[in-house]
Amino acid sequence: MGLLTGSASVTRCIATSRPDNPEFDDLAFEEILPGSTIRERVGFLPFEPGAQYQIGQHRWAFRIRIDTLKPDATAVQEHLKELIRAEKEATGTPFVHPRKRRSLKQFAEEDLLLKATPRSRVIECCLDDHALWIGTTAKTHIGTVLGQLYQVGVVSDFKTPWMNESDESPPSEIIDVGEPWQSVLGCRFLRLLLEDAEIAVEPESGAVRLATRDARITLTGAVMPDLLRYVERGAEILNAKMATAEATFRFDALNYRLGALRIETESHEHWEELLDERLEKIEAVYDLLDRKYATLRPRLEK
User: Fold this and answer.
1) What is d(CA 210, CA 218) in angstroms, rounded to the nearest whole number?
2) Which end of the chain, N or C, is less surrounded by CB atoms within 10 Å?
3) In sequence order, what E strands does 81-118 have?
4) Nearest-CA neighbor of 226 among 212, 213, 214, 247?
5) Angle between the N-to-C axes of helices 98-113 and 73-91, in degrees from 0 to 180, rounded to the nearest 10
6) Per-residue pLDDT of the chain (302 residues; tens, 9 = 90+)
7) 81: how many CB neighbours lie within 10 A of its CB?
8) Please, are residues 8 and 135 in contact by the beta-carbon 8 Å criterion?
9) What distance in Å separates the CA atoms of residue 242 and residue 148, rounded to the nearest whole number?
10) How far apart, in whole angstroms, are the C-alpha atoms of residue 31 and residue 43?
11) 65 and 140 in contact (C-beta within 8 Å)?
């Protein structure tokens, strides 16, 4: 899933500061060479080999590739068993000291790393003036993207309606808000959307995640009857599969992020045209949510 193909999972951010021309090539991706002791490499790539990062006035499209070298845990355990057996035979003792066992495990990991193939993750992004679109909702990967951009002078923050208005997250006995960009206001907003005629919880093939005082609950299928009963008892809606006339998507209310957004597009000869159309439709969904939030905002803290 990304910005260019498939269902889109998208985090919207804002660049509070950036240079006129970010030098992405300064942190271009470099592969991990065979036999290297390096465990991870992160860097920028254009959308296609040889393509330009800048695709318009104050607009850049880039990918961030993350390669991680990590031995398979099962293979490490099997190799460790072989090393322990060899150690017992060499020393003639029936046991291996824990310190020696740890040393053998480290050797097993390093030995397998010499033969391991890096695992790659590529995240598609677009910086449109000061609007930043990140093609993932995974917290760790978002942090990596923002960190890489910071190194080329792009200072970014999350863009949510409560951060725009400097609204504080109301207290909740059910939800523990652990991150500065999260807010219970998002959950209250999603609850009020149950009354909306333009954007609604998917009624037939739905998927909803709820928080109660005692547990986290997942509902699937025709969720509305059970969902309404839980909400009446005070449950908070964490995320839900939503539907409009043009799109279906999963809305992560606590973080104000879109996941599994299905986008129908025309056929295009060039990837830049396809990216333009997909971003336009992604932005339209966020704009719709923003308008609804602005309308419902006076009711959120009641």
Assistant:
1) 6
2) C
3) none
4) 212
5) 130
6) 579 888 999 999 999 999 999 999 999 999 988 777 788 999 999 999 999 999 999 999 999 999 998 877 888 788 778 888 887 878 888 888 888 888 888 877 777 777 777 889 999 999 999 999 999 999 999 999 999 999 999 999 999 999 998 898 888 889 988 899 999 999 999 999 999 999 999 988 999 999 999 999 999 999 999 999 999 999 999 999 999 988 899 999 999 999 999 888 888 889 999 999 999 999 999 999 999 999 999 998 65
7) 12
8) yes
9) 32
10) 9
11) no
Length of the chain: 302
> Residue 24 in contact with residue 53, Cβ under 8 Å?
yes
Whole-angstrom distance, CA of residue 157 vs CA of residue 154: 10
Q: How far apart are CA 179 and CA 182, in angstroms?
A: 5
Residue 261 DSSP SS3: strand
